[in-house]
Amino acid sequence: xxxxxxxxxxxxxxxxxxxxxxxxxxxxGGKLIENEALLNSFMDDFVEMKxxxxxxxxxxxxxxxxxxxLGFKTKMIDGRRITNKESMEVxxxxxxxxxxxxxVAGLQAKKQNAIGLCGADGKVLISKKRENKEIDYxxxxxxxxxxxxxxxxxxxxxxVPVFSAISCTDGGMLLNTNGDSVASEITIAMSKTxxxxxxxxxEKKGVLRDIExxxxxxxxxxxxxxxxLIASKVITDGMLPKLHNCFEAISRGVSAVFLGDANLLKENxxxxxxVK
Length: 276
Ligand SMILES: Nc1ncnc2c1ncn2[C@@H]1O[C@H](COP(=O)(O)OP(=O)(O)O)[C@@H](O)[C@H]1O
Ligand SMILES: CC(=O)N[C@@H](CCC(=O)OP(=O)(O)O)C(=O)O
What we know:
Elements: E1 2-3, E2 6-7, E3 15-16, E4 19-20, E5 22-28, H1 30-34, H2 36-48, E6 53-57, H3 60-69, E7 75-77, E8 80-82, H4 85-109, E9 114-117, E10 125-129, E11 141-146, H5 148-156, E12 160-163, E13 166-168, E14 174-176, H6 179-190, E15 195-201, E16 220-221, H7 223-231, H8 239-251, E17 256-260, E18 272-274
Parallel strand pairs: 5-6, 5-15, 6-12, 9-12, 15-17, 16-18
Antiparallel strand pairs: 1-2, 3-4, 7-8, 10-11, 13-14, 17-18
Helix pairs in contact: 3-4, 6-8
């Protein structure tokens, strides 16, 4: 790359004229992953997207399905899974194995080099087991450190990191971590060196005023009306941790956060934008 008459080292273009380069972090939910046609169309858009990018995926419903087949019942509280030893084993197989590897293979098929990661790989997502006196979440962790140098080394090689919703303690214990939180923590950490944008793609077109009406997308959501919508129970289930993560991100250095469906990366589609 030629810049101001000198050759920049191949990927040393994070800051040009003091401007940070934009990094896009995209999270896809389990319901989207399950729909082959939607996933394929999403991946086309993702591959086409220019600049450094990171993909994070969930897969909660697949884990519930596989756990059920193995005879384990799943318990969720406010959109978060209670994870005992058996469910952690299922999660490692489903998120870290089946889903992560299938998504990476799908990207490779579209000529996008990618690498699948859980928190233990490259010590990339270090977490702490959640201690909650009222609810025992089991093997559930909250991210305390993101290895941004490792992530950057992949981005510099044009390799897309694909994260599953699994983190790891400093002592090497794998922990289930909400995919939305994985996405927001990575984006927040990467904001140190990049201008960052976070995209949440799920089965809905955004935050809906009426969950039964797909055309009731709230186009802009701020922290004030967000609290009102929780109080009036318009926002429930998986949307609770998702929006908590959105506001965390926007208040901790992320430039823009968007929520939408599988088409979110296309131009002019209806979506929700999070504002301060
Ligand atoms: N107001 C709302 N607008 C849109 N979705 C909502 C709302 N309240 C609750 N939800 C639920 O939240 C879900 C999204 O959260 P989640 O299932 O965790 O998605 P994902 O698997 O994509 O992360 C939606 O599928 C919907 O059922
Ligand atoms: C702690 C916790 O709740 N972890 C989530 C991680 C997967 C996830 O986030 O999946 P979706 O994006 O498909 O909802 C779970 O096990 O369901």
